[in-house]
Every structure is written in C-alpha cells, then in structure tokens.
Write a structure and sequence with these properties.
With about 550 residues, the protein is of the alpha+beta class. Helix content is about 30%, strand content about 20%. The strands form 6 sheets. An 8-stranded mixed beta sheet has the order 7-6-16-17-18-15-20-19, with helices on both faces. Strand 16 (about 390-395) and strand 17 form a beta hairpin.
Length: about 550
C-alpha cells in the first residue's frame, strides 16, 4: 500500500535487519494452500490484457455473437473503467463508458511536455509512479507501445532520501537503528492477528483492536519516545501523506498493511515490494488516452455525470445522468461503477437495492485529502553535494511541509521539478479557486514561495534556483474525485474491508478502493476494472 519514496527506504532498512532474525523476503497472504495465489492469477490476467491485439474485439466476435448483446454501462473513464471496457471489447462485448469530465483518465492526469514546464518536461497532477510489481500497468503500457522510464536508474549514484526533524538532519543510519528497536514490537503486533482482516473473516481480538486503533496512537505506544522522537515524527509524516489523512483519523492496520502484501509466496518481508520505480514517458495519461482511442468510436461519452442508481425490473439498473443541462436515463443489463469512493458517497443510492453492508462501506471509507505542489528549478540543486549529502529529491521533514520527491527524474534538460506532497490537515491549507492551477495565479505563486521557505532549511540555496513556475493539484476540490485515493479510518477494516468489490446483483464495482492487492495505486484501478469485466464475461459464458 506504499505510495511514497519512504516505503522504499523502510523496506531497505528491514532488509538489512532480516539477516539478524532469519526472516526471508516474502509470503503469500492471499492464496489458498495448494492453489494459485491471487497475485499469480492477476499476473496471468495482466498478460492476457497486455498481449491482446491493439485492434480490440476481433478475437471473440464469433463467440460473443452466440449470446444476446447485453447493454453494459461503465460509469467512469479512469483507468478502472477503461480497462474494463478494453477487456470486454477484447471479447467482442460492446459497452458505453459514461464520464463526467471533459477528458478521460480520471485521477491519471498529466501536465505534458510543451504545456507549461521548461525543457519539455512533464509532471503529473495525479497518479505518478508505477511499481516493479505492478504487472498490469506495465503490460498495458507495453500493449500500446508506451515506454516506461526507470526513475530509480536515473538517480545519481549514492543519492539518498533526506530527513530533517528537530532542527537537524536525521540520517538513514539513525532511522535504521531506531527501526531495529521497533522491530520486536512490530512482530508482537503481527502475532496477534492474521491477514486478511475483513468483513467475512474470523477477525481475532488483536485484529479488531488494531483496526480500531489510530496510527497516531500506535506510534505513541509502540515507537520508543513516541511522537517526541525523530523516528516517531518520521512515521507520522510518512503515513499522513501516505494515506492522505491525519494519523489521528487513520487505522493502525494501515501502517501494518505495508507488512502484509508480500512479493513472493512462502517468504516474508516486513515492508512489501513498492518501489515507485516507473513512469510513462511523456505522461501517464497517455495510457488511458491510448485505451480510449483503441475502443470502438462512440464507446466513451464525456460530460455525463451520474446522479442516481436504481434497481429496475429484470435485474437491470436504471442510471440517471445529467448532461448538457438535461436529465437522461439509461437502462443497463450490467453496470460497472468505476468511480472514486468520494463520488460514490454523493450518489443517490436510495433505490439501488444495495445491501446495508455495501452502503455502510461506501459511507464509512475515507478519501485521502492530498495536494501536489510542483515547482520547477533551473537546476536539480538537490542532486549536488551539500550539507544534506547528495539527495534523490525525496524528503520528509517538520519544517512546514511534509514530503517531496523529484518529478523530473529521467526527463530531458537540466531543469528540475520538485513535487511537494501534502496530506491531512496540511493539505487543507491549500484553498485554490480551482483544483488545477499554475503560478500564473498569484495565490499559487504565494503557495510556492511559502514552500520554498520551508524547503530552504533542507536544501540551503534552493530558492535562488526557482524559475517562477509552479502548479498545484488540489484533489479534494475536484468534483470528479473529492480526494486522492481511499483510506481506512479506525474501525473500518474489520467491518468492511474486502466488501468494496462485492457485486450487488448486476451492478459491479471497480476503482482502486476495491482492490485488495493495490488499493490506492493506478495498478489497483486497472486490476479492479479487469475483475469487474471478467464478472460480466463469466455471466455471459465467455470465460
């Protein structure tokens, strides 16, 4: 579940200590004994989608023609909805993808070369990095001939993340030593429950207790020195930005969730496998654009905002949209709701026929309140030697901002883009007039100058290199998302986790919030779209 560069470092700290206790490097948490793991199944599905011909729909047209064509409505043209449409098209099943926005991509939204930044550089308003283990995203990129840049390989040799707390630098070696003190406590917590924790599992008292506990309280009671210690402060900043909500409002299972999703069966790794390694060259939005372009003309319909879902006779769904100032209805045989949970919360579901557990999960799940402030500099000052050492651009600090990373890695030119990432209460400090703005707006320029003052203690001399260019993405203000990605509040997991993906009749659910393996990632959105499409194909006898 890691989304930031800190997870890489924590995993490296763990790896260095694994030899001390004989722990190995992975365990399967999702598969039944003697059967394939869920990760293995997803890997096979990824290969199937990625290697299909770019011209969709041809391979299975004859098979599809043997059944009456269903009316399939997909709501949401983000990576989840588009992947579902692609999977259906590959099996000869037509659908309509209804999208409220004027573009495809959802939370994958790029600021491409030539649109704003100097040196032909690109940044992301939304989802930015793809893990080594994100097989489906990589497979989809390969299918459409989109090269991936290796961000880790582009970092200077010996460069490290930089942490600064309590007026001084806090080194990796210090963090490693502090983690070693915490490791026995982590193992004690893990011994009190088994994954998965969820709505249909026999949750132990330990699982329920950790589900109800906040990350803030977990740090206070587990980390030596609690929030007064540099390591406690580091974890608090890390997991506020990681999940997008303050640690007082985030379940302790989230911090332990990094421990559960392992890279290989029958082994164990304390911090999973997220390495935030790849990025689509030229902008991640090239992928949803390519998928949409490959679908039959007219498949994607923009500017259609879903207002209500109601059960209709014959197991169908009545969908009510607004478009061009008018109200329109669609009767569907199958519906895929591929919408962020922040949007689901605002739909009229009173006549949907959804059960109380589904409605409860939608109401209870939180949305991260992250904002991204990106600034361009005339040089990548952080890559040069300074009192910070040589930095990758990834930082955690208490100087006023929370975390940053270099968004210009593997990109042309000498300029650099540093992205300052805020979550929780820090993100609430950003109140732009629109969700996506540049420094042409004086308010955004003011935010950039404030961030520079907070970055200066970490990278002295950085301010002088600012080009005056900056962008702000305020996802909580976007009416097509109402936040960044899903998060577990205290008490959520043991009551609802896993139910997000459970269909309600012929209404299917997709989106990163429904993913067990990759919640919060672009990969989670893509694999959930694949799953939802396969539910429909199975019903139609095509799988």
């Amino acid at each position: 579940m890691a989304r930031t560069a800190l997870a890489r470092t924590l995993r490296r700290i763990v790896a260095e200590h694994s030899a001390d206790t004989g722990t190995s490097d992975g365990a399967d948490t999702g598969g039944a004994a003697g059967g394939p793991s869920r990760r293995t199944v997803l890997g096979g599905l990824a290969a199937g989608v990625g290697l299909a011909a770019t011209g969709v729909g041809a391979a299975s047209t004859a098979q599809a023609s043997t059944v009456s064509p269903p009316v399939v409505a997909i709501v949401g043209a983000g990576i989840a909805g588009l992947t579902a449409a692609l999977r259906l098209a590959d099996h000869g099943i037509a659908c309509t993808v209804h999208e409220a926005d004027t573009r495809v991509g959802g939370r994958i939204h790029s600021n491409p070369a030539g649109s704003y930044w100097g040196d032909g550089q690109t940044s992301e308003w939304g989802g930015e990095m793809i893990d080594t283990g994100h097989a489906l995203m990589q497979s989809l990129a390969a299918r459409f001939g989109l090269p991936l840049d290796d961000l880790r390989a582009a970092e200077p040799a010996g460069a490290t993340e930089v942490y600064r707390f309590d007026g001084g630098y806090y080194t990796y070696a210090q963090a490693s030593a502090d983690f070693k003190k915490l490791k026995p406590v982590l193992q004690q917590d893990l011994a009190t429950f088994e994954w998965p924790v969820g709505w249909n599992t026999a949750n132990s008292p330990g699982a329920v207790a950790l589900s109800n506990m906040t990350i803030h309280d977990w740090i206070a009671t587990r980390v030596p020195g609690g929030h007064a210690s540099p390591f406690g402060q580091l974890l608090d900043v890390a997991y506020t930005t990681e999940f997008g909500v303050d640690t007082q409002a985030s379940s302790a299972l989230g911090i332990l969730g990094l421990l559960a999703y392992q890279p290989t069966p029958n082994s164990f790794s304390l911090f999973g496998e997220s390495d935030t390694r790849y990025h689509v060259r030229g902008g991640n939005q090239r992928l949803p654009q390519a998928i949409a372009a490959a679908l039959r003309p007219g498949t994607v319909s923009l500017g259609r905002r879903l207002q209500a879902v109601a059960a209709a006779p014959g197991g169908r769904q009545k969908l009510t949209f607004t478009a061009d100032g008018c109200t329109q209805t669609v009767l569907a045989d199958h519906t895929v709701l591929a919408l962020p949970v922040g949007v689901l919360k605002r739909l009229d579901l009173s006549a949907s026929g959804f059960d109380s557990l589904k409605l409860g999960s939608i109401a209870a799940m939180a949305m991260g309140q992250n904002c991204k402030l990106s600034l361009q500099f005339d040089t990548r000052h952080w890559n040069t030697a300074g009192p910070w050492g040589v930095a990758t651009g990834s930082t955690m600090t208490d100087t006023g901002y929370q975390t940053s990373w270099d968004s210009s890695r593997a990109q042309p030119g000498g300029k650099g883009i540093l992205t300052v990432y805020a979550g929780g209460g820090h993100a609430a400090d950003f109140t732009p007039s629109a969700p996506f703005r540049t420094a042409a707006d004086p308010q955004i320029a003011g935010y950039a100058r404030a961030a520079l003052a907070q970055l200066e203690p970490v990278f002295p001399g950085l301010t002088a290199h600012w080009t005056g260019k900056a962008t702000l993405a305020a996802w909580p203000l976007n009416p097509n998302a109402y936040g960044s990605y899903s998060a577990w509040p205290p008490g959520y997991a043991h009551q609802y986790a896993g139910y997000e993906a459970v269909r309600q009749g012929n209404t299917h659910f997709a989106g990163e919030h429904t993913s067990e393996e990759a919640q919060g990632y672009m990969e989670g959105g893509a694999e959930s779209g694949l799953r939802a499409a396969d539910e429909i194909l199975t019903d139609l006898g095509l799988l």
